Structure formats: structure tokens, C-alpha cells
Amino acid sequence: MSTSTNTLLRKAGSISLFMAAIVLGMKQLREPDLFWIIRSGQWIWEQMSIPFTDPFSYTFHGEEWVNIKWMFELLAYFISANTGPEFVFFLQVIANIVIVVLVLKLAQEIIKLFGKKVTDQSSMIFVLFAFAYLTGTEFRMIGRPEMISHMLVAAYLLLFLRYRKTQDKHIYLLIPLQVLWSNMHDGYVSGIALLIIYTLGSWTDLYLQSIRKEAVLKLTAVAAISILATVLNPRGGYLLVHPIEVYEMIGANTFTTELNSAFKNPSYYFSQYQTIVLILLVVLTAFALIIEIKKRRLKMVISNLGMGFILAVFALLYLSLTWHRSIVFGFIAIVPLLSALVAAQASGKESLSKFLPLVNVVIGLTLFFSVVTNGYYSITQSPDRYGLEVYQEKNPIGAAKFIAENNLNHQRAFSDYLTSSYFLWSLSPDFQSFIDLRDLDVFTPDFFQEFNRITQIPDEFEQADQKYGFNHVMLNSPNFPVLHRYLNYHPDWSLVYADPIAAIYLKHNSQNEELIAKYSLQENDTLGYFYDPAEIPPSSVSRILNYIFWPFYNSRRPKSSLAETTRFYQQIYDFDRAERWAFKMLNNPQTRYDGYRNLGQMYLTIGGIKKAKEDQLRYAQMASDAFYNGYTLDKERTECLIGLASTSLFTSQYDQALKYFEKAREKDRSNANIERGMGTCYQNLINQNKSLYTKYYPLMIEHFERALYLNPNDIQIHFSLILMYCDNGECDEARRLLGNFNENSLRTRSQRAQLTSCKKKCG
Predict the structure, then answer these.
(1) 405 and 375, same structural domain?
(2) Which terminal CB of the chain, N or C, has fewer other CB atoms within 10 Å?
(3) Which residues are registered as beta bridge partners of 507?
């Protein structure tokens, strides 16, 4: 390969790295958090003050709200007001570019500390590992203010390393950066921790005689001033003690998987591909360090890197274990260290320079094109999509338009936390939420539990209605099935709007009767309705950028699928309409399999509701026929096989159910429902014949444990395992599972009583 070609490829590899970083930040807005963030920024601008109490909910109105992110919220509002809410993701694009630059600079500083020059070859190695950073952290490139913490952690590490080598004045930048951090994101706590850790490490370096005393004293003074500068925020000195509350709140937040840790929910944490990639990088770093230590001796390696940096790396790796979303910090710490070590050890091996440029170009272009065509998101099973626009299928745009067009936005509504944030923005300033995604910054754990009971126990909803006086209910369509069914069948409520994202129910009263008469389902409407997702057209700036980076970009206008419509009517127990929609699916070869699957699930549900044994068996047979018809259409898919197994389980044919589950398991070994079903079969066989206990108990446990591993957020699997271990006197295993069990998610008093009994037995 000629020198000119090599140079061209080297530059192309670097350009492709930044192109990939840019398009990974250009995602459709699906995060509901961003809408309350924009709304808060709007409130701050209009009121010219920062809220100290909650202005957005009627349940906690006037209660204290410690809002650290106010500056980011204001910035997000300005962007949204001028270029549309979707353009807030341009901040993520900027953050991606800045972090990649900082990671590359960090690698350069580290290799210099080992006495090596930054060569073309080492730069290419840095680029190669920067791709690992992008793919490992992409799942947190979601436009939220945590991007500020990601950037500043990388900036702090770079300032620390530069100071170790030059003791220049750049270290004073820590002071304004800490002030900025404490006004933009709760992660400012990490800044305080890094300042303390690096300073303590530097005093150790002084003892090892690898840094001058004057430099350590200067660093100590800057760190102390930076920490004290945290008080330069609307809350003042309170932020110096707020970190304790932050960690308590996060520890109490069991309502989101992003806060699962390696300690509380290891099965979830270690099953994520980001964790696997980080572990691989850490192992490679350990090997590279061992090689370096053999060359230079341990003391020399510590002297080169500095104890402050080494301790900071360990601290960030530990932080990445505490919450899954914090794994980004582990990548920021390990990628530049590993790439510098590899580059240092590859120094002199010029053969790498022959193929590395081409490797980087291939990786960069593959990543770029897979992102803009959404292939990357399909492969990683990510809910994200490329393009600056509001994700129509994730936001209740149509429901908000219905509320606004019918002048309901000033009426009190019950709304869930999945939809409220969008309503806060779209229906401002009149709409106030019952609960929203500000989570424990505003709402208490007890209130989240109250919300769960309201959506799962009709009597609890009635009590809440009497207390708050709901005029209408706005619910996420795919979730909260119990409340959907209750409202659909209750004579005081009528369904007036539904699409794949949200449904609206109006209470029968004088002001709503005209709307109910106009929009509610009529007896003679055999199919009912299910609207297509509504859209918010992207701004012209967003549209231009989308096409610049991908000229073939297509802003989709999705339609409600027959399957979504069928599932919705099945969920609200409107079985006649659900059946008619399912039969429409049978008319299309592309949807026929799913049509049979939906019919089977519906008949099985009806059979479970029926009281008479003959009705149960009749619907079970109808379910079995539907599932079998689907299975014969496509024997490689497992859904109808699982349906056949579930039908056999329902009719107490446990041996037959096991055969179906086994056949499905041969095709899909990562399906928690299959494992749970097999465990349930063995459980029922034991209940039928106690003499089979010794034979089947280990198998029952094995399948339930496997099911929990595959779906660690399934409360019922988790709860069942706890009771099994308790009943069998295996208290060590029961305590292991009790440690990270959210007992507030239990729906019934009998379940809570069972859990209390287990705790008494096993402690």
C-alpha cells in the first residue's frame, strides 16, 4: 500500500469515527423525560425563577423539588422553542464529539506518560478502541442531561493527567467546570468524588516521590476550592449534603431497569451486552498492564500513571457496577488506558500500520451506514431509530391533540408516568400530572406504590377518584391492563380515543356527555376504532440535517397494525371486536400466523374467565385449534408452540405441555416464558403426586432460576422462587432473592401475607 493511500485511509478512518459519533447522537426523540425537562425550562424562562417546589403535579403541588438540572432544562427549552423538541438531540451530537475528542486526548496523554511519542500508528489504535467506546455506550446516548456528566468526567481525567505532566494553569478550569456541573446534572457528585480521590492519590505519589510537593499543594487547593464552589447554585450549600439523598433516592428507585446494579440484580446487569464488552476491555487492560509491569516494574508503572489516576479509574469502574446506566463511566476510564497500553506495546511493530487504516475505515463506515439505515438498532434490539424527529410510536401525540381539540386540558386527569411527561409539554400550561417521570425527585416511593395499586386494584382507583375527582383518564395503551378493563366495562366511564400509544376514557358527567355521544364506541360499530399514531413534523433544520447525513432518510408515517388493534381490544376484554380484527389478520398471508396466535390467546383468556367447566374446555379447544393452525403455517416460530403448551397447562395436561415447551425450547433457549412454563409444569406435577417431589423439585427450581435470569424484572417469577425456597427450608437462597425483591409490586394482600410469612421463617 502506497504512503499516500495509507495517509488517505488513516484520515478516512478518523473521519468515519466522528461521522459515526454524530449519527449515533441523531436519534428520534422517544425519551419521555425530555418533555418534562423542556417544560421545566419553559417555566423557568416564563417565571424568571427556578422552582423550589413542584409546579407541575396536583398530587405534590407545592412540595419541595430539588431541581439540580435547571440550566440544562433552560438550554433544552431554548433549543426546542426555536428548532423543535427533537433538536435537543443535537446536544447529544455535540457531547458525542466532545467525548470522543477527550477519549483520544486521554490516550495521547497516557502514552506520553510512558515515554512514547504519539505516532500515526498509535493514533490509529486510539481510533480503533474509540469505536468500542461508541458501541458500548450508545444505549445512553439519549439526549438526557447525564451527557453533561459523561463529558465532564472525561474532561476531569484529562485535566488531571495534563497537570501530572506539566503542572500548568489548565487545572484551574476544574473550578468553573464544577460550578457548571452542579447546575446541570445530579452527577456533580461524581466530580466531588473524583477531586477527592485524585488529590488523595497525588499525596500518595508525593510519598513515592513521583511528583513535587508544590504541585500537590496547588492541586489540593484547587480541589478544595472546586468542591466549595459547588455552593454556587440556587440551593447553595445544600448541594454539599445532597449527595447522600441522591444515593438514597436511587437506592429506593426500583421502578426502572437502568438503575439495576451488579450487586442487587446481577442476572440482569451481567446479561447486558454493554457489560460483557466492558468486562472484555477490563480483562484486556489487565493483561496489558501485566505485560507493562514485567517490562518496567510495578513502581515504575504507578509512577508513570500516578496513584491519583489509578484510583480514579478504579472508582469509575466501581461506579459502573452500581447502576447499569453508569457503565458509561467505566468505558470512559478504561478505553483510553487500554488503547494507550496497546499502542505503547505495539510501538516499533510497523506492520500494523499497513492494515489498521483499512480496518478503521471498514469499521467506521459499517457502523455509520448500519446506524443511518437502522440496521444497527435492529441487531442490538434497541428501541431507537436514526433521525432528528419526535418518535411517533413512542409519544402520545394523538391523545394530546384529542384533549386539546376538545378543551379538556384544564380538567383534572388521571395519567400514568409513561405518558404524563409529554402531556406536561404538549398541554402546557393547563395540564397538571398525577405522577410523572421526575420520579423520586418529587414523588415518594410510597406514592409510586399507591400508583401501582391504583392501576392494579379497582377499589383503589375508586378511592383515588373520590379523593382527587378525575374528569378523564389517559393511559398508556399497551400497559395497565387491569385498569383498562375496569374503565371499559364501568358504566361511569367510556372509551373515546385509542391508538397504539395511549387511550382516553371520559367520566359520564354533564360536561362530557356530548363528547361521549360523539366519540364513544357504539353497539352497531362492529370493529370499533384504533387510530394511527399522530405525528409532529420535524423542523426544517432537523429535516435538513437528517438528509445531509443520509439522503435516503424516510420520515415514516406508521399505521396502526392489525395486531396492535387486536391486542388492544383483547386487553380491554372487548372480545367480539378483538375476534373480528383477528379474523381480518387471517385474510392477509403476512399477518395470518399472528392472527391465529392472537385468536388462540384470546380464546385461552376467555376460557380462564369462564366459570363453567364445559365452557372452559370449549374455549381451550378453540385456542388449541387456533394455535395449531398457526404452528402448521410456520413451524420455526415458537409463539404458537408456546400457546399449545399453555393450553395443555390450562387443561392440566402437564406431560403434554412439557413436550410442547421442550419443542419450543429447542428453537429458542432465551425465552423466559418457556422456562417459566416448564417450571410450572413440574410444580403442578409435584402438587398432583407428592412422591415426585424429589425427582421434579430440582427441575422446577432450575427452570424458574433460568426464567429469572432471562427476565430479571418479572416480579411473579421472582416471587414464586422466593416462596419455593422458603417452603423447602432453603433460607440462604430465599434471602438471596429477598435482597433485591421489590415487595411493593405485589398486587394482592394474600401475596403480601405469603411474603411476610416467608420473611419470618427465613429472616
Answers:
(1) no
(2) C
(3) 493
